[in-house]
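Q: Joint fold for the lines below.
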Amino acid sequence: MLYGLLLLPLLVFLGRRDKGALVRLSVLLPILSALLAPLLLGQMAGPFRLDGVGLFYLMLTDLLFALIALFARGYFSEEEAWRFYWAGGLFLGAAHGAYLAHNLGVLWIFVEGSTLASALLVYHKGGARALEATWKYLMLGSVGIALGLIGVILVYALLSGATLDWREARALVGSANPEGLKLAFALLLVGFGTKVGLFPLQAWLPDAHAEAPGPASALLSGTLLNVAFYALLRYTALMQAAGLFPFASGLLLAFGLLSLLAAGFFLYGQKEYKRLLAYSSMEHMGLAVFALGLGLPWLALFHTLAHSLAKTLAFLGASGILALSHAKEVGRVGGLFRSLPALGVPFVLALAALGGLPPFPLFFAEFKAVEAAMRYPLLAAWYLVGLGLAFAGLLGPMTQMGFGPGRPWKAQGLDLWALWLLLAVLFLLGVRPPVEVFQALEVVLWTR
Amino acid sequence: MEVVNTLVLAVLATGFLMVSRRSLDAVIRLYALQNVLLALVSFGLAKGELHFVLAGLALFVLKGVAIPWYLFWLLDRLEVSHEVEGYLSVSFSLLLAGLLIALAFRVGAVFVLPEAPLPQGVPVALSLVLLGMLSMVSRKKAISQVLGFLALENGVFLLALSESHGLPLFVELGVALDAFAAVFLAGVLIFRIKGEMGHVDTARMRALRG
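A: Joint structure:
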């Protein structure tokens, strides 16, 4: 059955190049697998096993994918739609593999697979800028992930070549050489950190997100970054089982904080709104890594959930704005709140959510992180500086695009209700964060 | 063990020569030779274990034959000069290569784990990784960056052999398949770059900033 779940997304190819069939399959298959997956919890087959944390990310990815696929129906024309849905199907298959894998080597293979499939998403229909972005992404992503593979090899060697299955690895890792494990973890953090978009390895991220077509940007930011983050979660849990969490924590805190501060600077004065959103992804992945470094995996999981929802909403909104206005720059779009509330209201509120304003869930997550960071006042102070910078960077574009001067737009041919659905979920999550669910997931991650 | 040692040194020599040659054809041939040598190292370590023989065979077929053949075909079809264009002069890149190899042998000891079956392979593997990175950052042509990545990837393969008798076979095959897909995708992109811009010079691709 697990193999069925793994291969389900590939059935999208049955739609051939027919747009209508592709849309139906790309919406129904992920929904089907999101319904099927909970029934398979705890099952195993070969190197695959589905546990709570994997299930959480699998369902999140599936549901967001279905929503994005539905929105993309109005975005792509008849002729170019198949490229998006085919590459999307490949990507979803790779993501399924990564979340189902229960073996550190297989996890690596599917993370790399997701890189390749998403390179196709970035490239989409070409042009010099898209080619440059795709090339940069492919080269940087491949080198990063190759360094990660060195880490995997070292872990395997440290376990005396006994196993890569992580339930067995967790039991054995306590007797492994700690110095070797530290080296391996540093390499793994650099490798998967490149794909998460941590500073200073983020160079590919803004280009890829800005040049990909809108729905593809939403997929990259809302789902792809989580795949690599999930790998980091698993390795951090392995370090914790080896009793080396303090070492891992130091590295995670440093990388997370640096990414936050760097993203804050890049956000400030960014002229194109899609690049702005890309740097905001870098900020939030940095925050999630920071939360993990604080020893609060539940908060890191919650942060990635909130970020995925808000960023999918923001990128779908941005792709709607781009399709209607044909303007990439913040300064050429204005007055959305008034003239086109169906699109403008959710988009502006998504920016507010990403800026960490209440009542949205990212506010809650950042508040909890500051609270925990108070143990080290200096760390908390820098964290607040970074949040302030990032908020200031988002505030200008938010007011300009929402309320600034600009000519009125008319919405045509786009399904905007997906945006409102995401906004509603985001709001509910912020008003009543299901902390106990995430704490239960933390137990799964930390102990099994 | 004597034979394996010689082979490992020969692998290092091919890595060094790949940095120094100025013709892409020669670099691709050296890459193919490097894979044949690595496959032989894998056979040499086998001692009757089927795992090594299969991994070596897959390496030979996929990377010793298929990828070089694909790269030659790509180079033919692209109609660009076969010269490796770089930011650095030959003598300077050789000097850097020498320094990187020295560095790899100096820090290699940190990476050697107890129980490593081929400890002398570890610094050579690190050298290949560093030389591959050097090729990737110092070369302008998109295709020579791909060759740099492939050399780096070979370093990782040798590291797996030296540290722990290689990864489990299904992981090893998956990794090789990923590398092959990456190279194939890179080839398609290079064609598009040539078609779109009329050159394959990554130094001139700088529209995206900030």
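Q: Anything notable?
A: Chain B has a mean pLDDT of 85. Chain B has one domain: 2-202.
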